[in-house]
Amino acid sequence: MVARDHLSNDEFFTQLGNLFEYNRKKGHGTVYLTQKRLAFETEGQAPSSDKVADDPLWDTHPEKPLPILIRANNNKSTPRAGTDREKIDKIALSTIVQPDQLDAFFVRYAEACKAGMSGLKKRDRRGKKDKKKKKKGATETKG
Amino acid sequence: MPYLETSAEWYEQSSLLLKARPTTTHVTSKYTVLKPNARKIKKHQKYLEKRAARPADPSRPQPSEPTLDNVEEPKATFVLKTYDPDSGTCLQYQTTKAAEVGRLIGSLGRLGRHMAALPEAMEDLSVPADGMGVSTPKVEEDVKVGGAPAEQKAGGGGKKKKKGKK
After folding, report:
1. What is the CATH number of the domain that holds A42?
2. Min CA distance, A78 vs chain B (Å)?
3. Structurally, how many domains does chain A consist of?
4. Considering the domain boundaries, does residue B65 fall inside one?
5. ipTM
6. Domain that holds residue B112
7. Which residues on B lie below 8 Å from A61 (Cβ)?
8. CA A55 → CA A60, A61, A69, A112, distances in Å?
9. Which keywords accompany this UniProt record (chain A) (predicted)?
10. Would residue A57 count as lying in a domain?
């Protein structure tokens, strides 16, 4: 993977919006979202080796809250004969969320995902009505 | 790997896994939109032709039509996966409903708190900040978290009862 800098949270959300928009325009495709604890690259927070030896479960109770790494990416696409597939490079984004901003981040994250995942089934109230009508119709024809 | 039945169960199991292995466990959510493949469309058309050619069999009940009409629409799914490479544990939940997304991201947020090693007690403070979409399931999730692990076997059936209790 190509090394890249983490985006700021704001930048991440605009890019994530673009990623979803891109997926929508294409009509098909996948968006991956990953989250994990950022236990490395944080200076001063990495446990010393004797600490690990002392307590194998050190990571279940760190002294300080740790930041979280959020990643988003799509799949790259290669052209293939007989299909309308185009060459598309993989788009990958990442950001680090500090523990104190976690709640605010996930509120925005939920909004972004709700807006972006437009392909999923909406709550269909009309369908229910149709079914009811059909049932009625069926009983009428029978009787 | 098997999919869990309900999102509540997925959250419950994932939070237990995260508590046990907070550093190695990660959560991947995959939103995917698939075009129907050409073969499926062809098959469906053949089926329709066949059905049209052989009309009205009075002895059999009429199959409902609209269920098959969406074959040519793209199919979207949202899959949540909690995976711990150390132990090889993998928990998955899949949905196709847009209505669930808000709640599921809410669960991701609460799992994020485990990852960040923030105390769960802080959840109450986060309620006003979380706002609308997340607040409704929060009640039931809180009960779940508080409940003993034995309770989780009750599964989806117990969910509504618990909500009523609170």
Report:
1. 3.30.720.10
2. 16
3. 1
4. no
5. 0.74
6. 7-32+78-157
7. 117
8. 10, 10, 25, 40
9. Cytoplasm, Ribonucleoprotein, RNA-binding, Signal recognition particle
10. yes
